[in-house]
Design a protein that fits this description.
The complex is a heterodimer of chains A (318) and B (328). Chain A has ten helices and ten strands. With 318 residues, chain A is of the alpha/beta class. Chain B has eleven helices and 13 strands. In chain B, strand 4, helix 2 (84-94) and strand 5 form a beta-alpha-beta unit. In chain B, helix 1 (50-66) crosses helix 2 and helix 4 runs parallel beside helix 5. The complex binds zinc ion.
Amino acid sequence: MSRVNTVLGPIPTEELGLVAVHEHIGYGMPGSELDTTWWKTPEQRYAETVPKLRRFHEYGGGTFVDATGICNGRDVDYYRSLSAKTGVHIVASTGFVGGDTALPFFARASVEYLAEHFVHEITVGIGDTGGRAGIIKVGVSRGGRMTDLDKRIYRAAARAALTTGVGILTHLAVDAENAIAIFNEEGLPLDRVLFGHVDDGVNADKTRDTWIADQGGRIGFDTFGYETELPDPPFWARPRKERLDHFLRFISGEGRIRQVLASADANCSPLGWPGVRGHTVNYLFEDLIPDLRAAGLDEAAIKTIFVDNPADFLSIKN
Amino acid sequence: MTGAQTAENATVNTVLGPVPAQELGVVSIHEALLSVVPGAEYAFDITLDRAEIFATLAEKLQDFRRHGGGTIVDSTGMFHGRDVRLYEALSRTTGVHIVASTGQGPEEMLGGYFLTPQTDPPTPWPAEKFADLFAKEVTEGMVVPRVERRGAAGLVATAASLAGMTATDESLFRGAARAALTTGVPVSIRYGNDAVRDLRVVLDEKLPAGRVVVGGLDRRDAVAAGAPIKVAALGAYVALDHVGTEDDAHVTDAERAALVAELIEAGHGGRILLSSNATGVAKGHPANEVRYSHVLTAFVPLLKAQGLGDEDVQRILVGNPRDLLSTR
Ligand SMILES: [Zn+2]
C-alpha cells in the first residue's frame, strides 16, 4: 500500500493527481509576525487564498505541497480548513527553509533532537493539530554556503527520512557537494531528495543541476513564474525564455525527464513580505504547461513531470 | 530625597493601563513571568498549558504580594514568551501590578526576519527600524502576533551578546534608546562583556542616563571591573538583578549586600535597583526557581545587617524604580 501524508490524513498515492510540489499557502520569516506591516485579517487571508486553490482544483490540480517550514508561518489548522473546503490535497512540511529561518530553540538543538522532532511531526502530528507532515524541508542559508546549522538540519532530515520514508525537499541546490556528502554518509538514496530552486535567477548559474542528477538526485525547476517580465519582479526573477530553455535543455538529457519536477513557489497570501503581484500556483496551468506543449512535449511527458514523478517522490517508502 | 524626581502626576504603563507611579509599591525590576526561548513553542515535547501556567504564576505573584511586593517588571521583551492577555488576567487576579516590556536581543535571539531579510543583500535591520518597532509597542500597544495590539509597554529591554556587542546588538541598543526618547519609557540593557562601553552606546543617542537601567551588574566580571560604581557615576541605574543566585558567574548575596552598602557610601543610593531575574515559568530553558519575594524575605535582612536603615531600603525598593519607570 502506497500512501502520502496530507494535512487531513494519509491518502493513497494514486489519488494525488497533478501535483504542485513546491508552493506556499503563506510564508513569512520568523519574527515577521511582530511587524504589523504584514498583518492580515483572517477574512483577507481566506479571500486571497481560497480563489487560487479553487482555480487550481478547477484546472485539474490535485495536490498542493506547502514547502513552508517550522517557524515560517506554517499553520496546519488553517491548511486543514482550506483543504477540506476546496478539495485540494495539501501536504505540509516539517523541517526548515534554511538554518537562518530556524529560531534559537532549534538552532541550539542537536542533530538527534532535530531528527526526533521531524519524525514526530511525520508520524504523530504537528503540534496538536492532528495533521502530519508529508515532506521534510531543508535549505541553504543566505550566502549560498551551507552553515553548520544548515548541515545539522540536513543530517537530521536524512535520518528522519530513513526512519519514516518521506522525502526531503531542498531550498536551493547550491553547495550540493556538502549536501550530498551528508546524505551519502547517512545512507539516504538520493532519489529521496528533491534538489529545489535549480532555476532561480540568482543561483541557476552556480547550481550543478546535471551533476546532482548524475548522482541520482531529483531536480526541482520550481520557481517558474518569477520572471523579469513581471511589473515588479523580485531579485530572484529570471527571464521567462531563459528559464524555459534551461528546463528544456535539462530534460533533453537521457532519462532526465524521470528526475525532474516543476512548480511555481508562489504564495497564496504572503505573511511577512509583500509577495509578487500576479504570480500564483496557477502559473503551472496558465503559462507553463502551454509553454511545454508549444515546445513539443506530449501529454505523456507532462504527466511524467506533474503526476508520476511527484507521486514516486512523495509516496512514503517503507 | 525619596520620590524627589517623580512628579506628583507621573504614571507607569502597566498591562492594565497607566497607574499612578506612587501606587507601585515595592518593585522588582528584572523578572520573567512566562519565559519561552523563541521556537520552543513549536517543539514536539514542550506543552504550553495556559491554565497550568496561570496557576503557577499566580501562586508566585501572590507570594510576592504577601511579602510586601507591589509591582513585577517582566523584562523579557517582545519575543521571549510575553503573553499580554495572560498578564492582564494575572494582574487582575493577584493585585500585583505587572509592567511588560518591548524590545528584544541579543542578536542570537532574533528571528531571521531581522537578520537575513528577503532583500538583496540580506542586510540586518538598522537602529531606526528597531526604534519604530519598539516605539509602536508603547504608543499603539504590544503585539499579540498577527492578532491585535494590547496595552502599552512600560519599558524597552534589550541585551548584547555575552562575547561582546555585535553590530546588530548595537542597532538594538540604539533603536531602544531612540524608542525611549520618543515615548518617554525607560530602557533596560543587559550588557555583553563591557557594561560601561555598552551603556555609552545608548547614552550616545542622547538618552539621559537616568532613563537607563543596566542589568547584570552582580556578575563577577562586572564587579571585578568596578562596573557598578562606574555605571552609577554616569548616572544610570545599577541593577543587582540576580539576587538569590550564587554561582560561578555571579557574586553571592552577602557580596551583593556589601556592594549595595558601598554604592550608598559613594553617594549612589539613588541609583540602586534589586531584582532576582526569576523565571515564573520557563519553556525551552532551565528555570531560575528563586522566588520573586526573595529580595524581601532573604536579602533585606542582609542589607539591614550592613547597616542600611528603613529609609535606604525603601528608596531602593520603592523610590528608585518608581522614578525610573515613570513615563516622561
Ligand atoms: Zn519556497
